[in-house]
Amino acid sequence: KLAKSTGQRCVFHAPELHARIAQRLEMENQLRIAVEREQFVLRYQPRINMHSGELVGAEALIRWQHPGRGLLEPSGFILLAEETHLIVPIGAWVIETVCAQQAAWLAAGIGAVPVAVNLSSVQLAHTNLLKTVADALRRHNLDPKFLELELTESAVMVEPDLATRTLRSLRQLGVRLALDDFGTGYSSLAYLRRFPFDTVKIDRSFVTHITQNAEDAAIATAAIAMAHRLNLTVVAEGVETQGQFNFLRSNACDEMQGHYFSAAVDAATFEGQLRSSRRLPLTENETAG
Ligand code: C2E
Ligand code: MG
Ligand code: MG
Ligand code: MG
């Protein structure tokens, strides 16, 4: 069975490889059509102030309404979108859709809702990013300070000098900038300070075992302390339990996202959460003082 024994590895594996290439091409074609037909939807995950329990905004998370495969998560298509650069029009659709939604919430009397949007390194390198963001904000007559753009450490490290310039221009526009998935890359927060971030999001991988693993707890608390010294707001990602919530809260983490409060939900459900100004009960902490 092993190709090794015959020395004809490529012959044995060619059909499999061929199938994989055909599958990828098909996905790529489907993704192109998806862009044309706007087969995407956004989910909104609430962001909570850990001290007041108040809902303070949301992160927009994309899904692909695939004609044959149902609702696809980003892990099923973002990489392909980046490799084909289709992430540029897809990302523009996300920015436009978020701005339209923010304008709709304003018009409905709900108010200005801060929303964070994820950007890929491919978008960051693309010359049109600044114009795409500025045009969408202007078209919907929005105050830029309610739009936050999230970039991962690895995204800004692809071309650090170009990223620095682009991020400064975006900042001048008045949008906020967040460093996403902090702790998963190779650079230090001190180095990353050269980029004009407002917010640091501590990656879920440090939050998951925060109450059991002393190293994860040490990394998270050190990151919070350092971020605060650098005047950055700290958001914890992937908070699922009251134990994680309490630990982060007593270690001065500012905000959080996670299933402990809510998963990412459709716009109507999120609107309901906004309208009822649903709050997290802070009982445990209030008794703990
Ligand atoms: P991310 O920006 O770090 O987003 C957080 C991910 O964690 C989301 O997954 C969210 O649904 C999930 N999550 C939130 N709270 C919890 C929790 O308590 N437990 C667990 N297990 N998971 C939680 P999602 O929506 O599948 O997105 C995955 C990634 O795809 C995002 O990671 C982001 O990097 C990327 N992405 C999503 N939307 C876009 C987009 O519009 N553009 C680009 N370029 N990337 C996007
Ligand atoms: Mg997911
Ligand atoms: Mg994000
Ligand atoms: Mg993240």
From TrEMBL:
Keyword vocabulary terms for this entry: Kinase, Phosphoprotein, Transferase
Protein name per the record: EAL domain-containing protein
Parent-record interval covered: 631 to 919 of 1052
Coiled coil (UniProt feature): none
Organism: Tahibacter amnicola
Residue stretches making up the EAL domain: 24-278
